Amino acid sequence: MQQMTQTGPKTREGSVGVVETQFLDLPGPLPLDCGRELFPVRIAYETYGSLSPTRDNVILVCHALSGDAHAAGYSAAPPQESARDGFGADERDVAKKAGLGWWDGMIGPGKAFDTDHYYVVSTNLLGGCRGSTGPSSLNPATGKQYGTDFPVITVADMVRAQRAFLDELGIESLHAISGGSLGGMQALTWAVLYPSRVRHIVPIASTHALNSQGVAWNAIARHAITADPDWQHGHYYGTGRAPLAGMGVARMVGHITYLSASSMKEKFARRLQRSDDIAYELTVPEYEVESYLHHQAGKFVKRFDANTYLYTSRALSYFDLAREYGGGSLAVAVRNIEAKTLLICFSSDWLYPPENSEALAQALEACGKSVELHVIDAPYGHDSFLLEEARQIPMIRKFLSDEL
Amino acid sequence: MQQMTQTGPKTREGSVGVVETQFLDLPGPLPLDCGRELFPVRIAYETYGSLSPTRDNVILVCHALSGDAHAAGYSAAPPQESARDGFGADERDVAKKAGLGWWDGMIGPGKAFDTDHYYVVSTNLLGGCRGSTGPSSLNPATGKQYGTDFPVITVADMVRAQRAFLDELGIESLHAISGGSLGGMQALTWAVLYPSRVRHIVPIASTHALNSQGVAWNAIARHAITADPDWQHGHYYGTGRAPLAGMGVARMVGHITYLSASSMKEKFARRLQRSDDIAYELTVPEYEVESYLHHQAGKFVKRFDANTYLYTSRALSYFDLAREYGGGSLAVAVRNIEAKTLLICFSSDWLYPPENSEALAQALEACGKSVELHVIDAPYGHDSFLLEEARQIPMIRKFLSDEL
Fold this sequence. Notes:
Two copies of one chain form a homodimer. The first copy, chain A, is globular and about 65 Å long. The first copy, chain A, starts with 17 loop residues before the first strand and ends with a helix. In chain A, helix 3 links the parallel strand 13 and strand 14. In chain A, the strands form five sheets. Chain A has an eight-stranded mixed β-sheet, sandwiched between helices. In chain A, strands 1-7 form a two-stranded parallel sheet. Chain A is an alpha/beta fold. In chain A, helix 2 crosses helix 3 and helix 5 packs across helix 7. Chain A has 13 helices and 16 strands. At the A-B interface, helix 4, helix 5, helix 6, helix 7 and helix 8 of A face helix 4, helix 5, helix 6, helix 7 and helix 8 of B.
């Protein structure tokens, strides 16, 4: 465990300490699914733990829709808002203020991704707005920010960028890849695209494809942004106006889909915001849950780029293992996977429901693959992935240490 | 059954035929929960069947968020869009084009609300935009449309307006009141406020109070509208701009909450809109479900007023029998009810979940009231209320004819 100076934030047991986000420029253009190429491509990343001399102890963690490379430890330059609140886990305000990484509970000495043994690498995804190349990056063709001239990307494109990045680090193969939600989609895609390069994958609260309802929620979120006149067809950079209102609505929709109806009832009930009675106000929040949504939206729009939200949401909706790699069959799509798979999902997650992980496990089993599925009984909906770490840790530790 | 002319739309078996919406102005000011009074108040209404000489065969039907007074038969002046598609029941396009009422399957000779026996009255709710006084009506104080100068109203205010309206018709007591969703809230409120004036209530797919998640969806829908700069703080009338974009987002959110995840999967799966492959388009709908949402939003904004949506959504969220009439206790709130109650709800309705109807039934039972609860196993979510008429009809007919 690293020691902290007296003046820095206090360490917790098992913290990786203070970390700094680093940047790497890929040496050549990145070919994309849409047929275009992207150059230059910069990847923002952090690492935790030590790379073994044989470079065989690498774990890649992949973030979800609104995350970034800062997955563990304390940020050297704490942002005002952390990607840790990407899932409404606002109980951790203290942690956030200290610039704690979004998956700090899982990454560190003695944790699920144990930095005493593994070299954990976390990148900001392609299309991101937290250091990696995305729509807010400069377009070399125009000298201005891409905006919607940025190519439409896929989860596979994100994975190709990660591979090119790891090639630059001299890392040939991965002990494991893990992530929740969209992060789990990246892990699955890695195992399909580069079967010989990854030994374990741990997709958490993820799926082989969003259901129709998930596609619909994402469409609404994107529409809320693009219908905001301040979006300006995506070219809002430098205009002094950004689609903050639309982003706020998108974030509100996201938040509810990350929670469960019962956890919302538990947390907010129908408690009024200001008194024992309603105030007959049309637009002012009257209920605690209304204030909560406005508060979350307000925080999010300060730290996130609307175009990154659009591109990432689009990639999330496109993702479909069966369509992309199996001609419509999930079993065909996964038949080349060599990695051992640990799937973790949550009983109350209606956005990434357990039935999807079950379908994926069945497809893997049907092909004779090694797959383990845990449906954790937890009430917090999709958010459980970040809130129910204690039960995931022993599962993951055991899975990663199990060499048959 | 009325006969139609050759040139009019064809009648169906059991149709009430061609009907015309009528209007009535209340004689005096309407006192409101917020402490203000409203005057003048006009009520748009339709009637089906014949009033008995003793005026004891009246059934009041109450519409939901986006409905209107045109509940049954063919409109004499068919609107371009019907309130019937208020719940995404777009399978009935033919019926809608003929101007069919939103509850035509339930109202007519031999139907649930049998016009061979009952005189069915349907009003557009207070705050509405389809003939009754609402925020798009002229404010006598300014000579301009109210906009957000319209007072914030409650479900009880809607019920008070209905009572004053029925007083004008010379109707003292009601054989029954029924409605789905917000309509059911009006039925419940009638039974609490005016126990001696109503003999049966049939709240369908309704609740004694929205859950936290329902409050949240409504808050998002309202925020999408009020964050649209074209809303102009509610004073958009006559400006040539209306918050159509925000309304569209609100409607999209509403639509998904009216469906169930499984019925969406059944209806849309992940079918692409235009080809066998994705088109790498950021903003153009790629999936059928995306096109569906855009289509529904586009239709809705043509026929509905944004401020009415705001006020009605607010009333819907406020509604809370226990808070309003029971000092926090549902059992106390319902103890003065004299009407017999038939509650119908649907297994897949996650917006108005069966557990709420069950809680209401328990509270009524605890007070020794006559209550019957049917949970219909149906896959269409909240929409089931309009799509599963066949199973409701015999329940309602039996309930209404049962005089102990």
